[in-house]
Amino acid sequence: MKHRWLNYLFIALTMGVIVIIAFSNNELTNAWGALFTLDLKWVLMALLGWVAYMFFDSLSLHYFLRRQRHNISLGYACYVSLTGFYYSNITPGASGGQPMQVYYLSKYGVPVPIGTSAISIKFFAQQMMLVLLTAACWIPNAGFVNAQLGGMKWAIYIGCGINFAAIPLILLVALHRPMV
User: Residue 120: CB partners within 8 Å, gap ≥ 6?
Assistant: First the structure.
């Protein structure tokens, strides 16, 4: 029980430090005032969107692991997803989230290869949807998108190229290890 309270205290302290650093920036002099002018309905809609995303992220982890005969509860799947988001946000390049998810799954009795597969499949599915949604939205609206991008087209092309290339690379890692 004491260990759990230390975890909550650590999370609260890191969030507090982030808020202090963010709002002590001289360029954000009116940040608190701007926060209080937000329309509550849009804040609630954003919160609802985040809750829906968390639910489906947890459900995908829960469903995959049940199919692999590792019955974790939906609540623990949500805990693992939240842990991943937290560590992705405090580590450089968001590199710490997935390893921590695999670690917490292993603490629950899920073997590391199964946990790694679950996280990799989730990443693959998210990349696939990102690529498909980008193409579905960009192609019919190419004129509008190009007009809005201006001189930043090159950065968007590089980002899309990396995301498109991630899909075959994930498949290559999963299906043909000697070539990798």
Answer: 170, 174
Contact 17, 92 (CB under 8 A): no
Is the whole-model pTM more than 0.90?
no
Sign (positive or negative) of CA dihedral 168, 169, 175, 177:
positive
Q: How far apart are CA 166 and CA 119, in angstroms?
A: 15
Q: What's the pLDDT score for residue 51?
A: 95
- Angle, vertex CA 50, rays to CA 46 and CA 52, nearest 5: 115
DSSP 108: T
What per-residue confidence (pLDDT) applies to 62? 94
Strand ranges inside 10-90, DSSP E = none
Task: Determine contact, residues 127/163, Cβ cutoff 8 Å.
Answer: yes
Backbone angles phi, psi at 149, to 5 degrees: -75, -35
Residues 122, 63: contact at Cβ < 8 Å? no
